[in-house]
Write a structure and sequence with these properties.
Structural class: mainly beta
Helix content: under 10%
Low-confidence stretches: none
Strand content: over 45%
Shape: elongated
Radius of gyration: 21 Å
Number of strands: 9
Order of helices and strands: EEEEHEEEEE
Length: 133
Amino acid sequence: MPTNITQRVRTDGTTTPDFTVDGIQNVENYVKGRMMLGEGYNFQAGYLFKNGFSVDARYTHLKADQYSFLNNATFYNRPNYYTFGISKYLARNYGAKIQTSFTYVDGNDINDNSGNPIPGNEWIARVMLTFAL
């Protein structure tokens, strides 16, 4: 961590020497709080049938460091993702497919985009149409 950081720019464009974290001046942990730090793993499996349908499943786990931006309740703070997907290839060359997936997310004190608490966990649904040349 560079030791010569003495100022930060606020969202209104002004500068300040304030790097307060947990009530004390801490430049290193303040900077870490703006980074995605931690570890994670992802397990994924899928199968393509002869009729052009495929199924897949994925599990993702994120373990954020104490001062990581991954602990932000609005944008992250979601440690476990469980996804199930189905695809249909529309051509023999695999150049076109339609795909859908559903993801269940374990929330841990999470917020919506306006900062309002979300009770419980989240569901994410995706539908995609892909063309490749």
